[in-house]
Specification:
By secondary structure, the protein is mostly helical. It has one domain.
Length: 503
Amino acid sequence: MSGGAAGGTPAGATPSGAAGAAGRAGERGRLVRDAALTIGTRFGLAILIFATDIILARALGPSAKGRFALVLLYSQLAATFVGLGMDQAIAVVSARSATDARRAVANALVWAAVVGGAAVLASLWLYGVPASDGGAPSGPLATLLPNLSAAQFTIAAFAVPAELLFNLGLFVLLGRGRIAAYSAVRLVRRLTLLGLLVSTALVTRLDLAAALVLNLGSLGATLAAIAWAARRDGLLGGRPSTALLGEELRFGGRAVVGTLAERLQFRADAFIVNAIAGVRATGIYSVTSGLAETLWYIPNALGVVMFSRAVDPKADAGRTAAVLTRTTLAVSLVLAVPAALLGPRFVRFVYGASFADAGVALRLIIPGVVAYSVVAILSRYLTGRGRPGTGTLILLLGLGTNIAANLVLVPAYGINGAAAASSLSYGLTAVVIVVVFLRVSGRGLVETLVVRRSDLAAAGAVLAAVARRASARGRAVRREPPVEVSPAAADLVIGEHSPGEEP
């Protein structure tokens, strides 16, 4: 008995307790490492997105940029619709085992080919391409999306299967915990598009038609990168499974409405602005929304980490969500102040005088964007814990508020009204989802929203981990040594203990 204590095991401790502590420490390290990698990637994405947006704005002007934005919005929304929530479902399924992941990938390929192909035909038919009388398209989608030509919409339609496969492929990597591959794929898409745009602009005039074709090229390169990552992890070569497909559709069917509601809450204002204020205003407003949403890069990065933990039944997802939420809110507030103060001058200087109105609208949308940063974490918590229906109802409430406010404010105030409407709906969604999270998780309001001193130290540890990742980026991902996590960084994950819990 005494020999056990003398042998190095403290009194009152057990080998299983030591193993549990080691497991928690390992989880802390993985969380900080994944957060550091994903946040670092988002900073890279921010640079690429800014550069791409500026080139498009300078080369195309407000009206053509508005059309470019509408083409991308349609293809991405249509892909989300026909995906029926399989992206989130495929992540949950893939997390279970490599065998299920291979079957899920096979299902995804078949779904993208069959359903994605049908979506192309349905889109063209609903738009009225080709027109039976040889005139302009007159289908219901042509009425919903004025200011687009038949050729421009055709490009949007043919991009739907590729966007669908892109979404499914990303979530497979996320479900398998391949955060590095997930992040790299997103960089590939933006970097390829930027490279193609710059190369074309140096050789010839960059117009809307060329920009749309180059976007398809960047999407194709991204799909090749996803295929390479999947093959590297042994995820290709599986057989489709109808039983697994049914499981995915049952889960996805509960999540897709919420996903669509969230996407439309972000983008319904663009369609309304286009219909009421015109395509030029749409192009200007695309700069407003794009700049405002840069404040979501860190929340979305942490949301990715949150989802990968929430689907793990062994993880204390509620505690992780609370820590990530309060950290995210604090970071968003810090970033919002200079964005609001300097936004108008920045827009005029970088994008040009023709986009100056975007800077004024930016100040109106920022309060809602800051509030909504918590939704990026908490909505993924609810979905990952098997409650997508709850998140769906919240997001539908936000969407309804967004559409109603836009219909009232856009006719009177243009893009400023759209920005204010979005800010109102984002704020309402954030308040409701925080209330629901507190009830579901049992965490406290202060614990969830008020940043702690230890969080600041942990944030420094994350940034240090980002720097170490950058210096070691030449190493193969699987061969990288684990990131050392300081006690302060550990507080990012377990800054508090539940009553009776062993430290």
